[in-house]
Automatic annotation (TrEMBL):
It comes from the Bacteria. This is FlgO domain-containing protein. The lineage of its organism: Bacteria, Pseudomonadati, Pseudomonadota, Betaproteobacteria, Burkholderiales.
């Protein structure tokens, strides 16, 4: 005997639906937090670094911003006149501070050097008029709260309802395939809308890359960029651990045997 076919949620009796809504409203009205509610920031996006090419994109952008900022900075401290093409600071001699031993810093140092030179910035090792310093900070959020949607229960209920109706009502081969494709497309679209297009979505580990340009003793330009990274890639941005120095060998004691 075939099992009874249950109506979809949309065909539930109005009385049951009213009872469910009333219970939900009662539950929401009788409970509250003793602390301020937590609200999200407005929706925004943030890049995710997953390859050396992404490092090159960052180096290119930083070099361009530094070069553009130089064309706006007065030549002498206290000079408020607008710099012209013949008075640009791009031709000033600068020194890029040495890179630490971390893989990202070494690669970023080489890429930034390449991009700055191509933009006409003169980099020297001796007697520079300014210096470019790069700082990298890995930010690892240790809290257990994930970056998922705060409406996980609603999404789960909607998914269960869709799958239930798909199972209860008979499906032909064509409608089954189309329903499966539609369900998959809906799931993918929801994930991309909530997590973005980068593989893996938002993570709890980020990298802050800042550059500071000092010219003739004053801070002339700065940049700051934040990227998502996978937690497993943190080692690329951190200096290698210091080698353990073995302890000094214990002194050897010698005894001289004297005949009685």
């Amino acid at each position: 005997m075939r099992p009874p076919i249950l109506p979809p949620f949309s065909l539930f009796p109005r009385r049951r639906l009213s009872v469910a809504l009333a219970a939900t409203a009662l539950l929401g009205g009788c409970t509250h937090l003793d602390v301020p509610l937590a609200h999200n920031y407005p929706a925004s996006s943030q890049p995710k670094a997953r390859s050396a090419h992404h490092w090159d994109v960052l180096a290119t952008d930083v070099a361009q911003r530094i070069a553009n900022r130089f064309s706006e900075v007065p030549t002498q401290p206290g000079d408020t006149t607008t710099t012209s093409a013949g008075n640009t600071l791009v031709g000033q001699t600068l020194r890029l501070s040495p890179a630490p031993a971390a893989p990202f810093q070494r690669a970023f140092h080489a890429l930034l050097t390449h991009r700055l030179v191509n933009l006409g910035v003169t980099l020297v090792q001796a007697e520079p008029k300014g210096q470019i310093d790069v700082d990298v900070q890995v930010i690892d959020h240790a809290s257990r709260v994930g970056n998922g949607s705060p409406l996980a229960s609603t999404q789960l209920a909607a998914s269960v309802a869709v799958v239930r109706d798909w199972v209860v009502y008979s499906q032909t081969a064509t409608t089954g395939v189309l329903s499966g494709l539609a369900l998959g497309a809906l799931s993918d679209a929801s994930r991309q809308a909530l997590q973005g297009s980068a593989a893996g979505g938002p993570t709890r580990t980020e990298v802050l890359v800042t550059t500071r340009v000092t010219l003739q003793g004053r801070l002339a330009a700065t940049t700051a960029d934040i990227y998502y990274i996978e937690a497993e890639d943190s080692a690329l941005y951190l200096p290698p651990p210091e080698a353990l120095v073995p302890p000094a060998p214990a002194p050897i004691k010698t005894w001289t045997v004297v005949a009685p």
